[in-house]
Amino acid sequence: xxxxxxxxxxxxxxxxxxxxxxxxxxxxxxxxxxxxxxxxxxxxxxxxxxxxxxxxxxxxxxxxxxxxxxxxxxxxxxxxxxxxxxxxxxxxxxxxxxxxxxxxxxxxxxxxxxxxxxxxxxxxxxxxxxxxxxxxxxxxxxxxxxxxxxxxxxxxxxxxxxxxxxxxxxxxxxxxxxxxxxxxxxxxxxxxxxxxxxxxxxxxxxxxxxxxxxxxxxxxxxxxxxxxxxxxxxxxxxxxxxxxxxxxxxxxxxxxxxxxxxxxxxxxxxxxxxxxxxxxxxxxxxxxxxxxxxxxxxxxxxxxxxxxxxxxxxxxxxxxxxxxxxxxxxxxxxxxxxxxxxxxxxxxxxxxxxxxxxxxxxxxxxxxxxxxxxxxxxxxxxx
Length: 383
Ligand SMILES: Cc1cc2nc3c(=O)[nH]c(=O)nc-3n(C[C@H](O)[C@H](O)[C@H](O)COP(=O)(O)OP(=O)(O)OC[C@H]3O[C@@H](n4cnc5c(N)ncnc54)[C@H](O)[C@@H]3O)c2cc1C
What we know:
By secondary structure, the chain is of the alpha+beta class. The chain contains twelve helices and 18 strands.
């Protein structure tokens, strides 16, 4: 949508055969991500599908209230961070793109590329090809495009945490409007919010030193039992909520990508998780991916030379996204400390939350505004 707004025709080639409207759990789209969508007039699609969660209340596993903190900063019109089911976010953006005449071709998994004098040819696993002036790899954490740009590119870093999440129905917990409750439990971390209907959105982060192999057991029955054990000694409703969850528990090992040395080569460039995956603890990965695309489209709009456009895009984005990856990794480390770390965390957190409650402390993250109309100044080459 950003490319279209910049006057550039684009086709989306997606590996999945079918829309993934029911895949995954839910996620937080931060106010800066909503603001970036607004630059291309697509914010309403997300706002209609999500609900506001501008506040977080932190608890220790013993039931001590550690403090309150804003979940992002509101935009000038009051719009705040949103919680949204992942599938609904996909659907909202896909339908909006399709409505604008953008072609999405499913079942096309990029395998390799062939350079052409005027661009690049993408070769898909099904044996077909597609040619274009540029290839933008928005192909996620395990990006093929990243490897095609730089065969020596680093692989994702396992963070030592697993993430599990789901929705629970039928419990009579009081609704927690606008608020996510975060429990720093003795053995694992638990977050939840209760909708006015009583439906509960929850997630858990569990420390796991060894990276799970491909065939690790994600079955809900196994995880329900494990989570019951992990939260058995904590105050709060975690056990009850897990118990009331149907069999749709999403389970993922958590990775990040601290620094990818090369983001572009010739006519190819990467965006989003392909270039800089962040762990979910900051709730920023999707928002950063959205910001990237808006900035990249502006660079291609305002800079004639493609290589220079990509270099300008990288220079505008790299510092910010790598800072978020570091910030998110720091938050992640507070979620599964040992006994001494836990004691220290519970002691210091009330003060830390007070210090960081100031809107200025996080303005760099949430008040990042991308003006669509402001032209991009191309990087001046040192050569
Ligand atoms: C458990 C968990 C919780 C998270 N919570 C949050 C949160 O609360 N807030 C937040 O902002 N972020 C969160 N994230 C991170 C967020 O999901 C990612 O940062 C975001 O989805 C990145 O978007 P992307 O478009 O770069 O990549 P993806 O969303 O991964 O999309 C990549 C797309 O490319 C397709 N693809 C892959 N390979 C190929 C190929 N070879 N050819 C063609 N297509 C291909 C895939 O099928 C997919 O559709 C979370 C992540 C996890 C794992």
